[in-house]
């Protein structure tokens, strides 16, 4: 079994902490370790570090290597430019297949919160067995506990078997992020949140990419033959220049008839914004989440981060306050998704020194 950690995102909704060279996955957003370190540690009981692959971008490749010195340098694959998850996964699958043609691969985002490591590992083992025995694409679904409109949903059908004590089901349909009314309906049916965690044989996903994304597969064939050679970076850059960005969900998973799912019965959050930190963190008596030098009076349900400067907050409710060396964010908690718009505005204004 190989592990593939996708670590190419910018994490713009975590500005001003998340920057181009130090995106969210390289930050200690949740605990003392960074998110990518937590992800590697989480799977290390199943997969030795010499079989863990990191796919990242040029800007943060040095940071990845510094934070993960136990990962062999050749296992860090650097994308010339981000093209979403399908090219990322195709590159990793080709790299793994060159090493071990029959290998199974676990694909994980670098920036998720998972609360129960033991249950998580048991789910991965079950998914691995299901993928191998059924020649399938297995995705981990999360049982919804609220009508969440920020996640995609998986609708599952008949059970196809039990693996490590867990039922595995055929996927009927993927649903995009729903409106609230539809999300409430999904709570009553056979629906799971789409976690973006996948398990499959490298050969199986490459065959499905060949079928449903033939242009990407064709372009990547020279990349496969150049792995381990001096021409690899040049060939890879040419491939990425000629393809469009597309997600593995849209490009393959929604079209394939080989998709299975099982319930990931562990606490999970994709940590998509500062408000997600509030959801998963311990609160004080005023239901506040604070880190650093923060003093609050009559403040409730706030998220505050100020590691170096004393930040005093009086009479505010449901706000986010994040201080960094050169920028300060103050945001209504229910507008946390709009932090991305602020990053876009700074780009438009040419204020790249703050990005």
Low-confidence stretches: none
> Structural class given helices, strands, pairing?
alpha/beta
The CATH homologous superfamily of the largest domain is termed Spore Coat Polysaccharide Biosynthesis Protein SpsA, Chain A
Order of helices and strands: EHEHEHEEHEEEHEHHHHEEHEEEEH
Q: How is the main sheet built? A: 5 strands, mixed, barrel
Explain this structure.
The protein is an alpha/beta fold and 355 residues long. The protein folds into 2 domains: 2-269, Spore Coat Polysaccharide Biosynthesis Protein SpsA, Chain A; 274-354, no CATH class. It has 11 helices and 15 strands. It has helices spanning 35-43, 58-67, 85-99, 117-134, 180-186, 202-212, 214-226, 232-241, 248-253, 274-280, 339-348, and strands at residues 2-7, 52-57, 76-79, 104-109, 113-114, 137-142, 153-163, 166-175, 191-201, 259-263, 268-269, 289-297, 303-314, 319-323, 328-332. Strands 6-9-7-8-10 form a 5-stranded mixed beta barrel. It has a 4-stranded mixed beta sheet with strand order 12-13-14-15. The radius of gyration is 21 Å and the shape is globular.
Q: What's this entry about, in short?
A:
With 355 residues, this protein is of the alpha/beta class. It has helices spanning 35-43, 58-67, 85-99, 117-134, 180-186, 202-212, 214-226, 232-241, 248-253, 274-280, 339-348; strands at 2-7, 52-57, 76-79, 104-109, 113-114, 137-142, 153-163, 166-175, 191-201, 259-263, 268-269, 289-297, 303-314, 319-323, 328-332.
SSE topology sketch:
Elements lengths: L1 E6 L27 H9 L8 E6 H10 L8 E4 L5 H15 L4 E6 L3 E2 L2 H18 L2 E6 L10 E11 L2 E10 L4 H7 L4 E11 H11 L1 H13 L5 H10 L6 H6 L5 E5 L4 E2 L4 H7 L8 E9 L5 E12 L4 E5 L4 E5 L6 H10 L7
Parallel strand pairs: 1-2, 1-4, 2-3, 6-10, 12-13, 13-14
Antiparallel strand pairs: 4-9, 5-11, 6-9, 7-8, 7-9, 8-10, 14-15
Helix pairs in contact: 3-6, 3-7, 6-7, 7-8
